[in-house]
C-alpha cells in the first residue's frame, strides 16, 4: 500500500520525510466574520493529503453547526487534532501536542479536545482513560457524529465513535478548503483500502475500500473550477482500483473513465492523482493521460523495495519484474512523464544485497523524487504479527541515508536534463525566497521559480528552464 502525500515543495520530498509528522495548521475559514458569540474551533492535521481532506470535511460539518475557525488554540472552544499512525514518531509528536492542549484546558475547563483519524481508532482507550488527554475520539468514518459527541463532551461525558463503515464516502459534503491558495485542491475519490501490505495500518484504521459516486466527484471538481481553482488532485489509498458500480442506474465507472470525466470539465483545469498501486495500474489510464493535455504527466508509483523476496514479505503482490514492466509501459506511452515513489529501508530480515537491489532499481528507473523512510513497526499489522523487526536502528538509518543520497543525485540529474526546455507552469504563489519571483509546478510536478512580470496566481505561463538546483527548476518567461 502506498502512502498518499500532499504535493511537497523543494527538497522536502527528498529528505527523511517529515511531512508525515508535520503540522498542517489551517487558516481562518472564509465562512463568516468571527465574533465573541461564535464558538470557535482550532484544527491541526498530521500526515497525508487524505488526512488534510478529512479535516476539510470536518470543517464543513462544524460550519453547519455554527462554528467559526481560529488559528490560535487559546481562543478555541474546541480543539481537534487529525492524526496519523503510519510511523511511531508521528504518534509521539501528536501525544506531545495533546499534552500542550491539556495544559490549555486547565485554564479553560470548558475547552473540548478531540482526536480524529487513524490514531483515534487504534489508541482510543489509552487516549481517553489511561492518559486522559482527550474528551472525544472519532474515527475516519464517524465525522457526521461530531455534533452529538461535542454535546456529550459539553455535558461532561466522553464521546467515542470509531466504528468503521462499509459505505461512508462523505459524497454529499462539500469540504471547506483549509490553508488554500485558491489554486490547488484535493478531491477524495475512495476511502479505505483492500490491500493488506504487511507494514501498513491503513486497512485497520480506515476500513475496506469504497468508491465514491463518480457524479459527486465531477460535481465537486466542477465547483472548484467555477470558484477559480485550476488544479485538482484525485485522492485515494489506491486510485487505480477505483470502481463505482450502481446497478440500479446501470452505472459502471473505472478510474480511467473517471479521470476522463474530470479532464473534460475544462482544459484549463489541471488534473493530478495519487496514489497508484503497481498491481492495479493498467494501460488504459496511461492512454487517457496521453490523450488529455490537462492530465498531468506525473505518476506516483510506490515501489517500497527493489528486491522480490522483500516485496513478497511486504505482501505487495507484485515482484521487481512486474514493477519494471509498469515503468516500461509508462515510459513508452508517456515519454515525458515524471515518476516518483515511496521506499522503505530496513524491513524485516533485509540483507545488504537486498538493500543494494533497491539502489539498483532506483538507478534503473531514475525517479524524479521519492518519499523515503526507515521501517517502523506498527502494532496490529501483518509484519508485527509474523516477522521480527530484526534490523538494528543504526543499520536502518545508514541504509536510508544511502537511499536519500542516491535520490538527491537522481533528482539533480533529472533537473539538469530540463535545462533549455520550455515547460508550462501553473503559478501557485510567491517564491519562498523572494517576493519578486513566482513559484509554481510543471506537469511533471517539479517546482519552477521565475521572475514576476505582471502575471497572477492561477495563471499558466510557458517558462524556459535556464538553471536548477537539486530540488528546483529556475527559469524565465517565454
Describe what you observe in this structure.
- The chain is of the alpha/beta class and about 475 residues long.
- It folds into 3 domains: about 10-160, Rossmann fold (3-Layer(aba) Sandwich); about 185-415, tm_1862 like domain (pyruvate-formate lyase- activating enzyme), CATH 3.80.30; about 420-475, Nucleic acid-binding proteins (OB fold (Dihydrolipoamide Acetyltransferase, E2P)).
- Helix content is about 35%, strand content about 25%.
- It is built from 14 helices and 22 strands.
- It has helices at about 50-65, 90-105, 120, 125-130, 145-155, 200-205, 215-225, 255-265, 285-290, 310-315, 320-335, 350-365, 380-385, 395-415, and strands spanning about 25, 40-45, 70, 80-85, 110-115, 135-140, 160, 185-190, 190, 210, 230-235, 245, 250-255, 270-275, 300, 340-345, 370-375, 420-430, 435-440, 445-450, 460-470, 470-475.
- The strands form 6 sheets. Strands 1, 2, 3, 4, 5, 6 and 7 form a 7-stranded mixed sheet that branches.
- A hairpin with a 6-residue loop joins β18 and β19 (about 435-440).
- α8 packs parallel to α9 and α12 runs parallel beside α14.
- The longest helix is centred in the last third of the chain and has 25 residues, at about 395-415.
- The chain is globular and about 65 Å long.
- It starts with about 20 loop residues before the first strand and ends with a strand.
- The relative contact order is 0.10.
Amino acid at each position: 500500500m502506498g502512502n498518499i502525500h500532499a504535493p511537497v515543495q523543494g527538497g522536502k520530498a527528498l529528505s527523511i520525510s517529515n511531512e508525515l509528522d508535520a503540522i498542517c495548521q489551517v487558516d481562518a475559514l472564509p465562512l463568516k466574520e468571527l465574533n465573541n458569540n461564535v464558538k470557535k474551533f482550532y484544527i491541526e492535521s498530521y500526515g497525508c493529503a487524505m488526512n488534510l481532506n478529512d479535516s476539510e470535511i470536518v470543517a464543513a460539518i462544524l460550519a453547519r453547526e455554527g462554528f467559526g475557525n481560529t488559528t490560535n488554540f487559546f481562543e478555541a472552544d474546541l480543539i481537534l487534532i487529525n492524526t496519523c499512525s503510519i510511523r511511531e514518531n508521528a504518534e509521539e509528536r501528536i501525544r506531545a501536542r495533546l499534552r500542550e492542549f491539556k495544559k490549555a484546558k486547565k485554564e479553560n475547563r470548558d475547552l473540548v479536545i478531540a482526536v480524529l483519524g487513524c490514531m483515534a481508532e487504534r489508541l482510543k482507550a489509552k487516549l481517553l482513560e489511561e492518559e486522559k488527554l482527550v474528551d472525544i475520539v472519532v474515527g475516519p468514518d464517524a465525522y457526521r457524529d461530531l455534533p452529538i459527541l461535542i454535546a456529550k463532551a459539553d455535558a461532561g461525558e466522553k464521546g467515542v465513535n470509531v466504528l468503521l463503515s462499509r459505505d461512508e464516502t462523505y459524497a454529499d459534503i462539500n469540504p471547506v478548503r483549509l490553508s488554500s491558495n485558491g489554486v490547488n485542491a484535493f478531491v477524495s475519490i475512495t476511502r479505505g483500502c483492500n490491500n493488506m501490505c504487511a507494514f501498513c495500518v491503513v486497512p485497520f484504521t480506515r476500513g475496506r475500500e469504497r468508491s465514491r459516486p463518480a457524479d459527486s466527484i465531477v460535481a465537486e471538481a466542477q465547483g472548484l473550477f467555477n470558484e477559480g481553482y485550476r488544479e485538482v488532485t484525485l485522492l485515494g489509498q489506491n486510485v487505480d482500483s477505483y470502481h463505482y458500480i450502481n446497478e440500479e442506474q446501470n452505472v459502471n465507472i473505472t478510474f480511467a473513465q473517471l479521470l476522463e470525466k474530470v479532464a473534460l470539465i475544462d482544459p484549463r483545469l489541471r488534473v493530478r492523482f495519487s496514489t497508484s498501486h503497481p498491481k492495479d495500474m493498467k494501460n488504459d489510464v496511461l492512454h487517457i493521460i496521453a490523450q488529455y493535455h490537462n492530465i498531468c504527466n506525473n505518476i506516483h508509483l510506490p515501489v517500497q523495495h527493489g528486491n522480490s523476496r522483500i516485496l513478497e514479505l511486504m505482501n505487495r503482490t507484485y515482484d521487481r519484474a512486474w514493477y519494471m514492466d509498469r515503468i516500461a509501459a509508462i515510459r513508452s506511452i508517456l515519454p515525458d512523464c515524471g515518476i516518483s515513489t515511496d521506499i522503505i529501508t530496513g524491513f524485516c530480515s533485509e540483507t545488504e544485497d537486498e538493500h543494494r537491489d533497491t539502489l539498483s532499481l532506483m538507478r534503473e528507473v531514475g525517479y524524479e523524487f521519492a518519499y523515503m523512510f526507515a521501517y517502523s513497526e506498527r502494532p496490529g499489522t501483518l509484519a508485527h504479527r509474523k516477522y521480527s523487526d530484526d534490523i538494528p536502528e543504526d543499520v536502518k538509518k545508514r541504509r536510508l541515508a544511502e537511499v536519500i543520497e542516491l535520490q538527491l543525485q537522481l533528482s539533480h540529474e533529472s533537473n539538469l536534463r530540463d535545462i533549455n526546455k520550455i515547460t508550462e507552469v501553473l503559478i501557485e504563489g510567491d517564491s519562498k525566497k523572494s517576493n519578486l519571483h513566482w513559484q509554481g509546478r510543471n506537469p511533471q510536478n517539479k517546482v519552477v521559480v521565475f521572475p514576476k512580470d505582471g502575471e497572477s496566481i492561477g495563471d499558466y505561463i510557458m517558462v524556459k528552464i535556464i538553471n536548477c538546483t537539486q530540488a528546483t527548476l529556475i527559469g524565465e518567461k517565454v
